[in-house]
TrEMBL record:
Transmembrane segments: 12-37, 43-61, 68-88, 94-110, 145-166
GO cellular component, one term: membrane
InterPro entries (alphabetical): Memb_transporter_dom (IPR049453)
Topology relative to the membrane: Multi-pass membrane protein
Keywords linked to the UniProt accession: Membrane, Transmembrane, Transmembrane helix
Protein name in the entry: Aromatic acid exporter family protein
Keyword Mitochondrion: no
Compartments where located: Membrane
Amino acid sequence: MRAWLVDQWRKRLGTFGLIGPSIAQCAVGAALAWLVAVHLLGHPNPLFAPVSVMICVGIGFGRRLRRLAELVIGVSLGVGVGDLLVSWIGSGPWQLAFVIALAMTVAWLLNSSELFVSQAGSSAVLVAMLVPGTDGGGLDRMVDALTGGVVGIAAVALLPASPLTIAGRHLSGVLDAFSTMLEQAAEAIEKGDADLAAEALECGRRTQTAVEEFTAALDNSKEIIRISPLRWHHRARLARYQTAALPVDLALRNARVLVRRTLAAMGEPMPPPVALAELLREVSEAALLLQLELGAGREPTLARQALLAVAARERPKNLGFSANVIIAQLRSIAVDLLQATGMDHDEASATLTPLDELSDENMRG
């Protein structure tokens, strides 16, 4: 238990660099929004100014501009409905329930976004319970929400996280998992070990979460570059990560099929030949080269060369069904990863050795 806690703590510390800038943006932005609302706008209790910064910036990934629009409109809707109804029907438990239900219903009919609906409801609560019936309060709170949203976007622009760090760390997680899966499958083939193959398959089943996190990280990185002039010079390097995103996802899916077939082959009379293990390792190493070159901001030429060498290998014959499936998946993975290096699909597919040119010697070679 202690070892598990220590491991989790280390993982948290290792990923703190990803959310640290967002925490700083929230803290500084909330304080600035409060100062602007109090000293420039003359609002004595600008509750919505720092709150809107927190919601707009947050510590999650992506779509902050959309969150800002939903926040401001949601707050305005909730405040408007709350102020209007409270001035007519007063405040109390049933009035509170009615205000919330009406504000959230209207919000849902306008936009089914969870943030939009919940913000309209929570704003109505605050209006109904904290300051019911205050003249001009609704307009002040709408202005506070807008102020906080603008300050939040300014905090993102002036205190930006590194989009390349965000994208790079998440892609590293994906490619590390991919490489580990192929290494385990290679060892399972060499040793004829079904347990190792099962472990590789279990590793593969966990990779989709990493892919989804990488996709979200890319969205966040693109938004940072769009908002912050300080990060505009990173556009070209981020474009390489965008190019790699879909092909790497496809490569992982093909790798899971490959490992599943490897596990099934462990009980067959004709298991996959040991020579296949070397090919798996070559693809694994090419994926790590791709990771390193993208992280260094270089064109992934070394990874491409390594994958071209795999693609040029000729397919042996008379290997049995499972071995042929593994080779077919390996060819698909090579095409996927070549696309991740920047090649188009037709160009990558053309690098594969034709299936009618068969040679056991070249597989060994």
